[in-house]
Design a protein that fits this description.
With 233 residues, the chain is an alpha+beta fold. The chain has two domains: 73 residues, Ubiquitin-like (UB roll) (Roll); 135 residues, no CATH class. It contains eight helices and nine strands. Strands 2-1-5-3-4 form a five-stranded mixed β-sheet, with helices on one face. A two-stranded antiparallel sheet has the order 6-9. It has a two-stranded antiparallel sheet with strand order 7-8. The protein binds iron/sulfur cluster (SF4) (2 copies) and FE2/S2 (inorganic) cluster (FES). FE2/S2 (inorganic) cluster (FES) binds next to loops.
Length: 233
């Protein structure tokens, strides 16, 4: 059903039920995201895509559009909320971009640039979680995990559909886990896919490491904003 919504005062014609985050991107309006991949169901774990819907904050990946919806994206409170959520992720984990294998192709880093984050307003926890090198093709740098759950839901054993990744513990003692038996059945392509789906440098495929020189890394060739607005991610 064709409907009309308003984003930042601009009237947009679209289809009822489409995810707000996609409608915005299709109309040239950038909304940051960390746990949403176009074409896959929304996980709703990061909330970085929050915007105002009829005056209330809502995660735009989890919000279907409806007729008459009034959306604010270019709004100081919205921008500050998005930035605060990104800052919180930096202070919750341990991130040292210059020495990180994912630098230049990391969604968290790229979104931090887009939200104008300079330093976190929250106290840094300097989290130390034991890294896991046991699997043949993959290692986990757990301090960088943002618990988006993309790997948990979308990387599975190709034969049985069993989950290869899981999250153990609760609150500050949570950490990402890998099933070594299943992980060692992964093809190199699947290990690469797991590394690519991780929006940070937590899942690293051992064969890659630093694979591109500074200046020609993923988000240096095409910014995350450009990629999202083209519907590429
Ligand atoms: S995971 Fe991303 S944000 Fe964290 S250190 Fe690596 S490049 Fe920086
Ligand atoms: S390992 Fe990566 S993909 Fe998996 S939950 Fe952590 S940040 Fe998300
Ligand atoms: S992108 Fe919407 S909640 Fe993560």
């Amino acid at each position: 059903m064709s409907i009309k919504i308003t984003i930042d005062g601009k009237e947009i014609e679209t289809q009822a039920g489409e995810a707000l985050i996609n409608v915005a991107a299709d109309n040239g309006i950038f909304i940051p995201r960390l746990c949403y991949m176009r074409g896959k169901p929304c996980l709703g774990t990061c909330r970085v895509c929050s915007v105002k819907v009829n005056g209330w904050m809502a995660a735009s990946c989890a919000t279907p559009v409806y007729d008459g919806m009034n959306v604010e994206v270019d709004d100081p409170e919205v921008k500050d909320m998005q930035k605060a959520l990104v800052e919180n992720l930096f202070s919750e984990g341990t991130h040292n971009c210059p020495s990180c294998e994912k630098s230049g192709r990391c969604d968290l880093q790229a979104i931090a640039y887009e939200t104008d984050m300079m330093v976190s307003r929250f106290p840094y926890r300097f989290t130390e979680r034991k890294r896991d090198n046991a699997a043949e093709l993959i290692w986990l740098e757990r301090d960088r995990c943002i618990f988006c759950q993309l790997c948990v839901h979308y990387i599975r054993d190709e034969k049985t559909g069993q989950k290869i990744f899981s999250i153990s513990g609760r609150g500050p003692s949570s950490q990402i886990e890998i099933d070594k038996t299943l992980a060692d059945k992964m093809t190199k392509e699947q290990a690469r896919e797991a590394s690519d789906i991780c929006p940070v440098g937590c899942i690293i495929d051992k064969e890659r490491g630093f694979d591109h020189a500074i200046g020609v890394r993923k988000y240096e060739i095409s910014s995350i904003r450009e990629r999202i607005l083209k519907g590429e991610q």
